[in-house]
Amino acid sequence: MQQAKGALWRIEYRTDVTQANSLVVPVGYLMEAVWPTPGAKWLGIVVRRKLTPLELDRVNLETWPELSTLESFMIKTFDEVWQPTGAVTDLGSQLVATRYSEHSALHFARDSITIPEGDFDPSMFGKIYLDFLELPQRLAPALIAPVVTLPTWRRPAAAAPDVEQQTRAA
Amino acid sequence: MLRGFTASVIGVARQWFEHPIQPIALEQAGLFTETADGASRVVMQGGRVAYLKPRPQIVANPVVAREKIVADLAHVLGLPVAPVVVRVATPGDGFQGHTALSLSCLPGARHWDAGGIQHIASVAGTLERLRVFWTWIGDYDHNNHGQNLLYEVSDGHCQVVAIDHSYSLGKDNRAPLEQPASDGYGTRDNQECDHPRREMTATIMSLDWGNIKEIVQRLSDILTSEEQGKILEVLEKRRGGLRDLLGMKE
């Protein structure tokens, strides 16, 4: 019997891949688990629907135009992972992730994942789903517009009686 | 062809060309890949990112030397290949042998197979020049290999950079003329590439043989004279047969 295997990918965009201290924009997570025996697969993706305007200002949209329509790009990626060109027992995410390696500004970084041990049991899906639900909280925007408190407007008091007003009052 | 590179990349490229073997301080910033030699993202002083190969414990001098020689030849020819330097071994932190350090060049880099084909018209000439170069050095890892070519579009200009050239220069004891012409990235049959093909071929033919020998022989710390001789034989014979390999008529 072949061991179950899985992968958790942290999807992020590095605004300057040549510099270590550049801004990193969180994009999403992709989680996949495969049980070669009997042949079962679990796949989940959680992505931000769109980047903030300040984040988009830092994205090279000429090279990465898909990041301006993030949700549809990630849904397409999900579909691609679900139907990989390799063997059914391969991790489809592994194949797709090769296109977004350490050299790439949009990067699939591998995080640790725990796949329940033992023979496949459909109840394992529930355990994985609980882990999956923890992921969205890690997707806070890297840049948001500052909240500006506007001053309360008050009518200034006249330093001296206005001549025209005074005339009308008379 | 290098106009898309920033001044700092060009500065590092020059310094690495002039000083081919150096001690370089760095910090590892990622895991080694599971490829044959393994490669890892590293950070140098000042925060610049580069990629290091092979993984610790492996002494792979021919791999390191091929990466360096190819990058230096490309530098002389003005071709967009990521600059490489040989980093002196640091057994204290596990690197038993010298390693090859390849500079990260494009801030918004994207792998060619993740969308590059839509820009082929604007970079066809550069890709054909690279194909001539790959044919000369007997490279067999850039035949439409989507991970070994990066691109970036900035201000309407598409810039490509080729990486990973260890499968070249007679690797696996291939006979000098055994490797056929490189297929490159779809420009071989493009008639508009005739001029860049001829131009790059002529440039390679005009390179001073003494300079080529120097680029190889200055790596004597990591290459035996026999290994140097084999690499030079590949470069000499393939240069002599370059037009035939490319199917060019006089």
Question: Could you explain the architecture of this structure?
Answer:
The complex is a heterodimer of chains A (170) and B (250). Chain A has 170 residues and is an alpha+beta fold. In chain A, 24% of the residues lie in helices and 21% in strands. A 4-stranded antiparallel sheet of chain A has the order 3-2-1-4, sandwiched between helices. In chain A, a hairpin with a 4-residue loop joins strand 2 and strand 3. The longest helix of chain A is centred in the middle third of the chain and has 13 residues. The termini of chain A are far apart. With 250 residues, chain B is of the alpha+beta class. Chain B has 2 domains: 97 residues, Phosphorylase Kinase, domain 1, CATH 3.30.200; 136 residues, Phosphatidylinositol 3-kinase Catalytic Subunit, Chain A, Domain 5. In chain B, 36% of the residues lie in helices and 15% in strands. In chain B, helix 3 packs parallel to helix 4. In chain B, 45% of the residues are buried. At the A-B interface, loops of A face strand 3, strand 7 and strand 8 of B.
Which sheet architecture does the biggest sheet of chain A show? 4 strands, antiparallel
Q: Roughly how many Å apart are the termini of chain A?
A: 103 Å
When the domains of chain B are counted, the total is 2
Beta strand count of chain A: 4
Q: What is the domain tally of chain A? A: 1
Strand content of chain A: 15-25%
Rg of chain A to the nearest angstrom? 26 Å
Task: Please describe the topology of this protein.
The complex is a heterodimer of chains A (170) and B (250).
Chain A: E1 5-14, E2 24-35, E3 40-47, H1 53-57, H2 70-82, H3 92-97, E4 106-111, H4 124-132, H5 163-169
Antiparallel strand pairs in A: 1-2, 1-4, 2-3
Chain B: H1 7-18, E1 21-22, E2 26-28, E3 40-44, E4 49-53, H2 61-77, E5 84-87, E6 99-103, E7 110-111, H3 120-137, E8 149-154, E9 157-162, H4 194-206, H5 209-217, H6 225-240, H7 242-245
Parallel strand pairs in B: 1-5
Antiparallel strand pairs in B: 2-3, 3-4, 4-6, 5-6, 7-8, 8-9
Helix pairs in contact in B: 3-4, 5-6
